[in-house]
Amino acid sequence: MRAFVTGLTLVSLSIALAAQAPAPAPKVYASAADIAALMAKAKSTRKPDQANLSQPIVSAAPYSANLEYRVGSNQNASVHEREAEMFYVVDGAATLVTGGKLKEERRTNPENLSGTGIDGGQRQRIAKGDFAMVPENTPHWFDQIEGTLVLMSIHLP
Q1: Are 75 and 143 spatial neighbours (Cβ–Cβ below 8 Å)?
Q2: Which residue, 34, 72, 110, 141, has fewest beta-carbon neighbours within 10 Å?
Q3: What is the mean pLDDT of the chain?
Q4: pLDDT tens digit sequence for 44-95
Q5: How far is Cα of residue 73 from the mean position of the Cα atoms in its chain?
Q6: For the chain, what is the largest distance between any 2 Cα atoms, rounded to a whole number of angstroms?
Q7: 137, 81 Cβ separation under 8 angstroms
């Protein structure tokens, strides 16, 4: 019985200490070398049928920035109902379509919709060095990707 009580006490202390442990510090800096490494990793680990591979760059709640590595024309269109998204084109080119209506709309989670494309909307060719912002609740889609499109996507609540 004494061993049981001692074990239970140790488990309880371990749980209490774990609950008090500080959360890991947010990652708020990434160097050019870090970005280059993420791009190389995306290129080498992306599966042949995978249209988009996304990796975190930095994050400090509620903000986050990701590297998106997009290949091919079978990209899904999206609507983020509660956040805006900004894109910086690191490499490549495509047509960014914003507005309009999602084709074959479906809910992917409580705050996002997805579709196979967009009917209507504004079309803008984007290329390396360009910057674009998509307001919350706005359909957006990368169409006519020329080879590979590498983006930094920044999510804003």
Answers
A1: yes
A2: 110
A3: 88
A4: 999 988 899 999 999 999 999 999 999 987 899 999 999 999 999 999 999 9
A5: 18
A6: 73
A7: yes
Q: In which residue are the tokens 């956040």 written?
A: 83
d(CA 31, CA 22): 26
Q: How far apart are CA 144 and CA 72, in angstroms?
A: 8
Query: E-assigned strands of 38-121?
Result: 52-60, 63-71, 77-80, 84-91, 93-98, 101-103, 106-109, 112-115, 117-119
Note the residue count of the chain: 157
- What's the Cα-to-Cα distance from 127 to each of 6, 63, 88, 145, rounded to whole Å? 64, 24, 9, 10
DSSP per residue over 6-55, as a string?
HHHHHHHHHHHHHHHSPPPPPB----HHHHHHHHHHHHHH--TT-SEEEE
Query: CA-to-CA distance for 141 and 83, rounded, in angstroms?
Result: 16
Look-up of token digits 């990701």? 66
Residue 86 has which token pair? Answer: 């900004």
* Percentage with pLDDT > 70 across the chain: 86
Query: pLDDT tens digits, residue range 107-156?
Result: 999 999 999 999 999 999 999 999 999 999 999 999 999 999 999 999 99
